[in-house]
Amino acid sequence: MATAVFSNPKFSPTVTTTTSSKTHFYHYRTHSLLHAKIQAFQAASLKFNPNPLNKKPQIVSCRGSDREPPAPAKVRRPEYVPNRIADPNYVRIFDTTLRDGEQSPGASLTSKEKLDIARQLSKLGVDIIEAGFPAASKDDFEAVRMIAKEVGNAVDADGYVPVICGLSRCNENDVRTAWEAVKYAKRPRIHTFIATSPIHMEYKLRKSKEQVIGIARNMVKFARSLGCDDVEFSPEDAGRSEREFLYQILGEVIKAGATTLNIPDTVGYTVPKEFGQLIADIKANTPGIENVIISTHCQNDLGLSTANTLAGACAGARQLEVTINGIGERAGNASLEEVVMTIKCRGEHELGGLHTGINTRHISMTSTMVEEYTGLHVQPHKAIVGADGMLKHKGTYEIISPEDIGFERTNEAGIVLGKLSGRHALRRRLQELGYELEDEQLESIFWRFKAVAEQKKRVTDADLRALVSDEVFQPEVVWKLLDLQVTCGTLGLSTATVKLVDADGREHVACSVGTGPVDSAYKAVDLIVKEPVTLLEYSMNAVTEGIDAIATTRVVIRGENSHAPTNASTGERVSRTFSGIGAGMDIVVSSVKAYIGALNKMLGFKDRSLTNASEERIPVSA
């Protein structure tokens, strides 16, 4: 392996290029998540789910036979009733990717992207989709309402339809706005919250305990008075709140009509034994607790969100709040795929028979969609969905079959696509990979596929995923790349000529020079678009081995004149960032596509801001 370091005036960070026998990966910033140690969780699970028969431990794999992966089991999903679950071992999965997950830096999502992700979450089978924070902005309100109308009414053959939830602070305007957005769903829910820790009540709310209890009680009553029969209440920063006060305020909101009590570790401060005991104590000491569902929401500041969530489930929580890929504010949230697959693998033998209604074969597709839309790269060693989880000798260390999460090994796919493959073969393979595409989308990808197949003997699944990402996972088009020509080398300045097409079909051409082909091409794009931006991140990697591999590029930009939202915790205005992705066998073309994608997303937000000058986005960690 060889490593070289370059400096480029266009890109302020240092660029490190690492070359190995399989991949070429260019990165500006590598995110590393500290995962919970399995010993910590085992200690918590033993406390709350002891083995009364003192049986010897068994090594259990969720893979099944090496020769034949097990068929997916029929989902055992009890009838939905807001405040109770008929099956005591069933755990509801509450996904907050579209609300808490979108608070990750650079993860701004358009309304179309939110709707696409909500549709995919429904395919995944999550019980509740927290679609957003309707009172935060007009755009958030419209996105939540759109999801409620479409996804919240898409009932499948088994009667499943996800609950559509909107977040609100404990004030009448927020609660009413949340209801106006979610009321179109068959199963609407309002999730309201207020801080309960001493430090938050004193310095953030400046209110007494009695005042906080009164506000919480009145807002839950108000939500029920609007016609909402499904109300969730969260005592923000519960992990640092006084226990007796927690029991008191939770008992009051139960009497007021709350159906779910969410216990958040807002700052990711607790450890599994501690958080599990918190849930157990709440279950044992809160009056009326038998009439509601207990939920968990664990942040990952100490890398313990998954372990804390599972400890909470062992202690009696029957709703678990998670995000795809564990994205979220600061260090992120409990990861849906980690929590769900732990329950799938160990639930029957070690977790007292816990199970979920998740169709795990949609995990890989959902993870990819969130990764591409948010621009938040999943590190290769990420549990469950990371690329390095695939082993050649799968019988040795692999405890989860890739097929269980909807990921097939290329060398086991059975179908080899090449330049003679037709639309039917391409559609079939894409369907096997989890992609259900419209005819127009398939046609665009087909011709991209043909172009790649002319240059490669064999088109792999990784190539297909890259093409789908480049064609499907894109924002609404404001500018589109038509032609690109670059000249570069050691004999002079690099030059680029770029031709773009605007939304009205008019062509625009510009030329520029730069320190390299990407720099000169980006400067040419800037001359056409005329929107001052700062490039914050740029990364590129080859999706397969070989010199003919497709390159995927991700960029993150910040507009100098973009609308700055306000952080509710600090009161400071923070700059919004926008990500873009591109793919192609030419690395400069791939880079320009990614840059234009980020610009299109930024311009889409700018247009909506102009129609709603008072828009203010308020990140909240409930």
Automatic annotation (TrEMBL):
Cross-referenced Gene3D superfamilies: 1.10.238.260, 3.30.160.270, Aldolase class I
SUPFAM superfamilies documented for this protein: 2-isopropylmalate synthase LeuA, allosteric (dimerisation) domain, Aldolase
Stored Pfam families: HCS_D2, HMGL-like, LeuA_dimer
Residue ranges of every copy of the Pyruvate carboxyltransferase domain listed in the record: 91-364
Highest taxon of the lineage: Eukaryota
InterPro entries on file: 2-IPM_HCS-like, 2-isopropylmalate_synth_dimer, AIPM/Hcit_synth_CS, Aldolase_TIM, LeuA/HCS_post-cat, LeuA_allosteric_dom_sf, LeuA_bact_synth, PYR_CT
GO BP field: L-leucine biosynthetic process
Listed pathway(s): Amino-acid biosynthesis; L-leucine biosynthesis; L-leucine from 3-methyl-2-oxobutanoate: step 1/4
EC number(s) reported in the record: 2.3.3.13
Top class in the EC scheme: transferase
The entry's keywords: Amino-acid biosynthesis, Branched-chain amino acid biosynthesis, Leucine biosynthesis, Metal-binding, Transferase
GO cellular component, one term: chloroplast
Catalysed reactions, semicolon-separated: 3-methyl-2-oxobutanoate + acetyl-CoA + H2O = (2S)-2-isopropylmalate + CoA + H(+)
Transmembrane spans: none
A molecular function (GO) term: 2-isopropylmalate synthase activity
Family: Belongs to the alpha-IPM synthase/homocitrate synthase family. LeuA type 1 subfamily.
Protein name in UniProt: 2-isopropylmalate synthase
Organism name: Trema orientale (Charcoal tree)
